[in-house]
Write a structure and sequence with these properties.
By secondary structure, the chain is α/β, with parallel strands linked by helices. It folds into two domains: 63 residues, no CATH class; 154 residues, Rossmann fold (3-Layer(aba) Sandwich), CATH 3.40.50.300. Helix content is 54%, strand content 11%. The chain has a five-stranded parallel β-sheet, sandwiched between helices. Helix 9 links the parallel strand 3 and strand 4. The longest helix has 28 residues. The protein starts with a helix and ends in a 9-residue tail after the last helix. The relative contact order is 0.13. Bound molecules: adenosine-5'-diphosphate and magnesium ion (MG). Adenosine-5'-diphosphate binds next to helix 6.
Length: 256
């Protein structure tokens, strides 16, 4: 490293612009070739550093979120799922609902894209530097129950309360007993009107009593808070997982 490179590295570190030393040589060459003004060069350099910082923050947020797979809105085939209003989902993807601490509830049978859309909304939030946590209802209650036994409940609870967006997938897959339901209730209460939840369920609201083992009081209390400021997307139609198999005649789905 020559003296000027050393000084650049020093200031880049001091000002927390970690990519500047690596960005300068290629941009300086480009500036010379294209006869950029000094102002153009300065702008290009800061733009490149800003993009690199955004990409790094987004990567970190996505890693911390714990998504089970990478899914995006762009990958979602709206023409296959006619029951979904593309405009509504596009509006949700702007993440204004997260800024407003509102909830999104995705309902529908297996394979219609609930988890895909939930992750995609989480990815959009992380692109806007909002913190996200992905979990399933079963994992959330198991984690909190374990923490209660271990005496670390408050800290664990904060892990579900602090992120700007909490995604709770698969509510209703397994019925929750009274103790488990109260743990979910705790999380919903703590986030109510403060931060957003995206929740998916294979059960319609009318069936939520069953999800909570017949306890309609807690089911109603949870739904009341979840739905107060919320958008529900009810997805109908066929499983995307089975579409190719059905085309090939491997499975037949009974008419309902
Ligand atoms: P659900 O959570 O409703 O059971 P998933 O979101 O897990 O369904 O979807 C099942 C699989 O099908 C996933 O790999 C998902 O990416 C894909 N998928 C579902 N619907 C669509 C769609 N409309 N366009 C593209 N991929 C889809
Ligand atoms: Mg799913």
């Amino acid at each position: 490293m020559n003296l000027s490179e050393e000084r650049l590295a020093h200031f880049a570190e001091k000002l927390r612009l970690p990519d500047v030393p690596a960005l300068v040589p290629p941009l300086a060459q480009e500036a010379a070739e294209r006869e950029w003004s000094f102002a153009d060069f300065a702008e290009a350099l800061l733009q490149a550093q800003s993009d690199a910082s955004d990409a790094r923050a987004c990567d970190t947020l996505q890693r911390l979120a714990g998504f089970p797979a990478r899914k995006s809105i762009e990958e979602f085939d709206f023409s296959f799922q006619q029951s979904i209003n593309k405009k509504q989902v596009t509006e949700l993807a702007s993440c204004a609902f997260v800024e407003r601490a509102e909830n999104v509830i995705l309902l529908g049978p297996p394979g219609v894209g609930k988890t895909h859309l939930a992750i995609a909304l989480g990815v959009e939030a992380s692109r806007r530097r909002l913190s996200v946590k992905f979990t399933t209802a079963a994992r959330l209650v198991a984690s909190l129950a374990e923490a209660r036994t271990a005496g670390t409940f408050s800290r664990r609870l904060m892990g579900f309360v602090r992120p700007s967006l909490l995604i709770v997938d698969e509510v209703g897959f397994l019925p929750l007993d009274a103790g488990e339901a109260s743990l979910l209730f705790e999380v919903v209460c703590r986030r109510y009107e403060r931060s957003s939840i995206v929740l998916t369920s294979n059960k319609s609201y009318g069936e939520w009593g069953e999800v909570f083992s017949g306890d309609t009081v807690i089911a109603t209390a949870i739904l009341d808070r979840l739905l107060h400021h919320s958008t529900t997307i009810s997805i109908k139609g066929e499983s995307y997982r089975l579409k190719d198999k059905k085309k090939a005649g491997i499975v037949t789905v009974p008419a309902r």
